[in-house]
Specification:
Chain lengths: 492, 492
């Protein structure tokens, strides 16, 4: 383990109290705008511990993200409520058997109240009674705002909280989800600090991999270095399964899954595409570095890498509040197409290619996505915003205008993917734009992606990621040169 | 990463073919013993990929264990069948969308047939039709043996496979589960080799932790060293969540879960209880090492540690086919009580203490459990064998007679657990056996466990774990002395 000055920052429960405040403000404003009375309770169920199939293997629990956002609770089996009128918060903890302490440690109600800094803590089995008695003044039936709505990345719906006796309450299924989702889109300074720490840890861990990589290793050894380094610095979870793709694997976008478990042997001359991010106290990072395994870019690798890096940098230089993300995606596509044209890998009119969506042959995924407690943070398509249907554009997880406080990834890529190239070749019009001999030559350079995490500021944006990006920087770091920590830089 | 000679062994699909053969033999014998016709198909559903709540975060898939045993399939969404009469095997793979290859890589039927060496591969959507046409000669309705039965560790039932059109088949829910479970209890040489490799990796990773541990570190840094070292050697999964318990945490048996995430700072003078095991190609290990963080046992730590080690060694020296596991548990309890009595921590008649089950005050968990594809491998209580009701004994995951080919953990422990000690003190008769002043003094030494993985041989047993166990060995290794690899030892 190399020397590192990174120490996990303390996490104050004020972060989650602040998240609850933003929700209460949003709900209040919404109710008053729709001339509804200012009453009701946002009521959510936390995640449950899962065992593997019929066995007693317990998956390491990670809290459901909306619940984590509001309460920061690490343990499974909780419910939580936030009263809109008073802003008061209540947690409901599972009542555990007396023998439980022997196996899991003592966790009492006062312990949870102190740990999570909420106004009240009760047991889950007291839920109906507590909600009734606390929120039915003037004889009214209490109103519960439940979380129900579609995640536009997965297409799955969040499951509204339920409990025995819920039929005695008024419930509202439509109000909470869009408002709470929108709260999550804009990051507070305290949230940003955690995303920054996850970025610091991940950046350093990526550099550790760059320094240890060499021909003959296995891809999973790169994963092990990253995971070991991240956990060592307090990040127990990764934001997603590590993608350690080398050689031809770098053009498989979700490489690294169980069926392709980073098990290839590294060859001299291969490119590596490393997409790995650590998570700290629920808040994540999502970083990709691409470089040659032997530490020296050859000419073809340089061409493709610089095409992608230019797109990455051009997008960043244009980012500021009000800019439409779909335009940034198109800018990245166009920049890459222009670079490829310069090398005669493609030829013809760039605007015509853009019209035929040929950028999506080389970059079939979206330019980037909101990032936070989820790697693909929700809120990309609020009601009224339709997902595009065209190749490439339909992969965008958001097409929103940028707003100050958003954290979004910038991750252009250029890949030589058989299926997509064959498809383009089969089309007589599209086919003419490609120089198929050159394509064949470049195919072996696989895929390149450069991914940074950006915070949108009032005037522009700030890069939270601190990895070597220029080819000379990468080659120097891989040869052992020191890399500056983020603190030594002036912020952009 | 320290130098290591460990290289992941190749995994032959003959291992899983052998597992299927044993199942076919067991099913055939069972059918013929119950005068039933030799026909039917063992039919199982593999695990499904899980996303986290409503998000698109995909959990890293790990195959359901029975399915892994029979087919070795790494990917989600499969079904599998084994014909009893012919022994032929069929896999059914999910049919993936054409765009899938761009994201996940190309996985065709021939690819799966070659990878998993089964007789036939079809798509899941062809299931009903293929089963009908392959297994309904003589106009009979095909008979499907489905997996349905209770896991005696979790109390959960395995969910029998189902598909559209299953109502047209004869199904049998009771035969397959006990027979297949019993197959898993006795390990083949090929299975043993993988458990051995998982043990080799884990033993070496434990030693790496012992060498790096020092006051001021965080418990999760110990976890990171173990996880990093294991993954580096090809073990992507751990068998269970790492327990890195130091100081008072070492008496919390399942420490390390999400609510107690190995986040304590290590103090000089603390004991550490490290229960961590790597998994290789589905087969696991489960190893515990206990030692002082500063590398030197003090007198009280020596007393408790040696009490536990003696129990560990005594049990191992008695293990052989025919020995009852409940007797080994009692032997461990008695050995520990005798050691505590020698130090005047308890006093009085050991037999009387055993009768009052006072051994369970210090060791509330079972002595050990079957180990294989699950950390708590099934088969501990086959039909007819009742779980004991008494403290300590009721925690046993098996009370079977040992058989050649079993792999079982030996993990005696001695803990000073508040709840249990208070309970004993409140009982006027039990209370007299304890020297409460001494108990108070020893309390701070926390808990000690020593856990090795044993293979039961024809004449005795073989220890698959290779960690320093004697105090002088531990102190030497922690001070930097080399530790011998397993190959340099003659096997016991
Ligand atoms: Mn990303
Ligand atoms: Mn165990």
């Amino acid at each position: 383990m190399s020397k590192s000055s990174l120490t996990p920052p303390g996490v104050s429960m004020e972060l989650h109290a602040g998240n609850r405040e933003r929700l209460v403000a949003a709900l209040s404003a919404h109710l008053s705008a729709s001339a509804r009375p200012l009453r009701g309770v946002a009521f959510l169920k936390g995640g449950e511990e899962q065992t593997r199939y019929c066995s007693d293997y317990v998956e390491l629990f990670r809290q459901e993200s909306y619940f984590a956002y509001l309460f920061g609770v690490q343990e499974p089996g909780f419910y939580g409520a936030v009263d809109i009128a008073s802003g008061q918060s209540i947690l409901f903890a599972p009542r555990l058997s007396p023998g439980h302490a022997v196996w899991m440690g003592v966790n009492t109600l006062p312990y949870f109240k102190d740990r999570y800094k909420v106004d009240f803590v009760f047991y889950v089995d007291e839920l109906a009674q507590v909600l009734q008695s606390q929120f039915s003044e003037h004889g009214e039936t209490p109103l519960l705002f439940l979380l129900y709505g579609k995640n536009t990345d997965s297409g799955n719906y969040s499951k509204p909280a339920s409990f025995e006796g819920i039929e005695k309450f008024d419930t509202d299924l439509s109000t909470l989800h869009p408002l709470l989702t929108e709260c999550r889109v804009i990051k507070s300074d305290m949230e940003l600090a955690l995303i920054q720490y996850a970025n610091d840890v991940s950046s350093e861990a990526h550099i550790e991999v760059m320094r240890q990589i060499k021909p003959g290793m296995k891809e999973y050894q790169l994963e092990s270095i990253f995971v070991g380094a991240s956990r060592y610095r307090g990040c127990r979870h990764c934001s997603y399964t590590c993608i350690c793709a080398t050689g031809e694997n770098s053009s498989i976008l979700h490489y690294g899954h169980a069926g392709a478990p980073n098990d290839r042997t590294l060859n001299d001359g291969d490119m590596a595409l490393m997409d790995m991010g650590a998570e700290y106290n629920f808040y994540g990072s999502d970083i990709t570095c691409s470089y040659p395994i032997n530490g020296k870019f050859n000419r073809n690798q340089t061409v493709i890498y610089n095409a992608v890096l230019k797109a990455h940098n051009d997008v960043i230089s244009h980012m500021q509040p009000g800019v439409k993300w779909i335009d940034m995606h198109k800018l990245a596509e166009q920049t890459i197409l222009e670079s490829l044209k310069k090398e005669n890998i493609i030829h013809g009119d760039i605007a015509a290619m853009m019209n035929r969506r040929l950028g999506a042959v080389f970059m079939p995924h979206g330019l980037g996505h909101l990032l936070g407690i989820d790697t693909h943070d929700p809120g990309g398509y609020p009601e009224g915003l339709e997902r595009p249907k065209e190749p490439g554009l339909r992969s965008l997880r958001t097409i929103r205008e940028l707003k100050e406080g958003m954290v979004i990834t910038v991750e252009p890529g250029c890949y030589f993917i058989d299926t997509l190239l064959r498809h383009a070749r089969d089309d007589p019009i599209s086919s003419k734009f490609f120089n198929w001999e050159k394509i064949e030559i470049y195919k072996s350079s696989g895929g390149v992606r450069v991914e940074s995490n950006m915070y949108v500021t009032a005037q522009g944006c700030k890069n939270l990621t601190n990895c070597p990006r220029e080819i000379r920087e990468i080659e120097a770091v891989m040869a052992g040169a020191p890399w500056h920590s983020r603190d030594t830089l002036s912020s952009t």
